[in-house]
Design brief:
Rossmann fold, alpha/beta, globular, homohexamer, 8 strands
């Protein structure tokens, strides 16, 4: 059975910095990844595109950001979709929650990754967390028989925010992305509106690899991404093979 | 390579209620389990043995508790050892920390399980946590080259205390023990000094199974034990097979 | 002066599992209990009723759930009312907050019991907490002279959620329900759409009784329910008779 | 049966500022109060006595502090004892823990009051918390049959530290001390080495009374002391008379 | 360059009790202070004005409250404005968030002060926190180039709520207001609808001065106000002159 | 009056990675810095020195580490001292606490910097925190007249641990070290036993500079170190010049 991963970002480039390696790893292992953006981030994080050409229309900026994310997604091996809800501020309504719940129910992912509950540096990020939290609950029900179709509750993680400590982010899961790190670098290079982040997140991959080595003693981990789980995991043994 | 699990209990029966199923699961899967008690619990939790026969010597009580734990360990498939440090209160010295560090270094477990950091109902339980915390650090070093022999830092969990909420226990890992639950019941039956706990922990296995089903949707989980991880895990993918 | 208790559940059966014994105890002691449901839970937790008869209309399901709750309330000795706001998801508006504030002002309870602030397994439960929090504030004012009629701020508790540790529930108050436990069992039996919960919550009553005995040493407590207080209590002495 | 309260202060005057009214209230209601100081505070808080007369011996300072506490205790209606363990820093050994456990076992209090777990302004205060925590556990056992004599576990509170927010103090229990506030003022007046605290704690009584009125609406509470409970309470009903 | 401070209160008198001294200090030092109220508090905290004259119209009450705040602001040396959004409950819409974001962008303060994130005693206070949090983010962007005009992110504090411990308030910054305390008293005297608060907050100034002296050893601090910072500060040295 | 900073590290190289820039900044501004190591870290972090030459004696390793720290201290502009208490594990006695309290009392620093309260990767780091906490209290007293000589309580910070999120480190204070960053690099180069850390901490300086720019908008900050304050600061205004 194919493993399925859903990544939900508030803006169309969030996934590449924060989960690009993890996406590529799942794809490499034969899994299916749906990379869903709630907005294009056309206002809050496209300043470089506006500076290049102040006469661009909002639609042109969105089109450029769509192309960049499709290109990066192709490199990582995932499908890209954008709900185009607008950014800075993003507005979430009951209808939009229901729209996302339907997407989750249809895709039936094993795992969902999204933003953290808190992020003092961006009003859209915690909102993305909230809408994912509620839509995930509505798609899965309370774990009991219900009046509507339900899926099994997906495992649910938050990816790393830009300033982790100030966003209450305490990582509990590190993913070794050594084998796909070149793909992540290539995917980050597609995001030319935020190029200054490429070297920042290249360094971060190295630092999180250092942390993973210190935590586990496994010297083969050169690069890593880290996550915070929002629900417990259910295992078949406390010493699984995957604690490789 | 054989998987190795070390369980450290403050008293010689702690493991059976709190990790008996998880031990049996590892053994069933071909792993090796060292079941280490820091004391026999001859004072704090052997009241029934003293009531039976007030003339028993302390050594007789220890002997009886040793036999019960060996019998239960044989059922679960693990080796039992006791350091006989005394209980209620247990006294921990620098030498005893070093003794435990040596045991950890020699056994080189993949995973260690012990008590929680807090437990308002038993002074020995948090002490066991502290001595394991320090001994684990001393056996593994700071993740850098050191003047002494080091092992890879074992993954480290706390098992469930008797009153979880009041001990700051928030489970993040559930182990399906359905296939070995009969063994756990048989092992618990060996502990005749604390027989009243057998039905309590049989019920708890069922309740934690209910929780695991609700969290994951996996209907095959009938019985579970749950744990709190004290260090992050390092994985090869975010959708591993073991999230079965 | 009659003691008055208000119980606010998101769905029409929540009260019976979580506070049924405490309600019966207050009634037995001559108090008055208003048992208020914000919705019938006709979507999220009525799967069994729909399975029995897929052709049932929503109104028939509501009617069945109303009858079950009235029957159970009669056994426990309280009055049952439902605001019928819909479930999964429940929608809360400013008008609905004001409606609840009016009910609280009119009933003027000594104590309010409702859900916890967090519950990762049900989107309606935290919403019920929020609406009670705000309506209670609006009914009581800020403790100073106001432009509107005010009541004394009721003492305010959260009852136990299905997975307490994952909902941030740390109990600080246990109620001995030994003398009314048969009534709770009978009331739970009325909820035939969720029959699987009856044995679960019967066991929980026993477990919480065990905890209460260990905390206090009082051997007469066989069954208990537990709560988390959301506001301080004001006492006449630190060794009151009621710490029986 | 007489209600019994044990108050344990690190230094011989701590009780009067932090629990003087609550002690007087229990005494007034016919209860028995043992007021136990672990030290005289002869070094850390007796500067005024040394300034008055730099030639005083340590023993003279202790004697003066003993007399002041006996005088204040007589006003409040409790018995005063001091273990004279030394202050700033206080040294706690296993023998001293056992000494306190024996005192608790012999007195068998319904309620114990002591310092908070944290207090960044005084190294002796958290130490007093720790020794009470452990001695209380040793006197009561783990709630199960043991090899030694046990008492029922006393209810356990922390009193208010000088800088509550910085000491992690969140009050959950307010005691109305209006009827005995004059006694508290008279008792505080006995502590002439720390006279500057009398007006501070008179004001605090008024402020906590204001808070209690706002929380409950009860206008008759003029003065209050507040506490943080360290263990749950077991009640016979959720609307007890004592929530007066 | 003139230092600029923005104070945002939910109701038109909040600033005077909680930040009056700090405002006067900034003004005295040549800074500019904008004192912004989101509402007049005409319902929740004007009971005395209604009692005086039950026939007053809402507009008359607002006018009286406006005059009192202007008078107090003149004493403190700041400009007073009110957005008149209504109170108890205050309703916040996306448009009102945008309105406040525009005000912040136009004034471009160095520092913003508002309520705490939690306040169980007043539903409008946490709402004021939320609207300031979001408007501040929208005015400053995410610290990267954006499609809209941005200001530097202001430093951001919460002032002290009426019951600090129950509102999660842990002060990390004390401001010495000794030199302007007479002005604060005079400003508080203007608020005749809440006269009972004047002595309360006079005492609080003294108590917080006591705390500041104990924390720092600086005996010259007689009166203080305290705050909780919501974002880190960036300093040029770890031993700045301002830690006077 | 000269500003004085005391830095206390568990091992003789801790200061350079974690506070080297902040030390150099204070020195550059004319302040005096005492750089105190509790041990040489001869066991836990000198593996490279042992690998170079397995025949080295412990004393030779200590001597080498002393020379490296003196060289680095000379570059940063501070005085280096080592108490040589031994490492991995470090043992702290009452006498050693008193020894450190005397050093603090004699030096009378304005600010103390040391490790964090928690650090799961090194048993000596939290111990250093504890001994500093207690020694600082003993040197300053409880803020009241005492029987012994006292200094004003120094401001107290924790520097950044190697894995900040897992050590409970939430930075609240960033120091701009741009002007002295070359000195920090040169000082780090002296520590040839831990060379692999030089690039790690060079990157960290850049990352924390990025964070400081995002927090404040101040583009001139290229490199920063960050800290967590353990006690509140007392300021003369809420918009000080030093928030440059």
């Amino acid at each position: 059975m194919t493993k399925k991963l859903l990544v939900v970002g508030a803006h169309s480039a969030d996934y590449v910095w924060r989960a690009g390696g993890t996406i590529a790893k799942v794809a490499e292992q034969g899994g299916q990844v749906l990379n869903l953006a709630l907005s294009y981030g056309e206002r809050g994080e496209s300043g470089e595109l506006w500076k290049e050409n102040p006469n661009r229309s909002v639609d042109e900026v969105k089109k450029l950001r769509h192309e960049m994310s499709e290109e990066a997604s192709a490199i990582l091996g995932c499908e890209f979709k954008c709900l185009d809800w607008g950014d800075y501020p993003m507005i979430v309504t009951e209808e939009r929650v229901a729209q996302l719940a339907d997407i989750i129910r249809d895709f039936a992912p094993n795992v969902i990754i999204t933003h953290t509950k808190e992020d003092p540096f961006n009003p859209d990020h915690p909102l993305a967390y909230q809408v994912v939290e509620k839509a995930r609950q509505l798609s899965a029900g309370a774990g009991v028989a219900a009046a509507f179709a339900r899926i099994n509750p997906p495992v649910w993680y938050s990816f790393e925010p830009h300033q982790p400590e100030l966003s209450g982010f305490v990582p509990d899961t590190f993913i070794d992305i050594t084998s796909v790190f070149e793909k992540k670098i290539a995917a980050m290079a597609c995001m030319r509106a935020q190029e200054y982040l490429k070297s920042y997140y290249t360094e971060l991959g190295s630092r999180r690899g250092n942390h993973a080595r210190r935590i586990s003693g496994k010297q083969q981990v050169k690069y890593a991404e880290c996550f915070k789980s929002n629900v417990p995991v259910i295992l078949d043994t406390i010493v699984p093979d995957m604690h490789f």
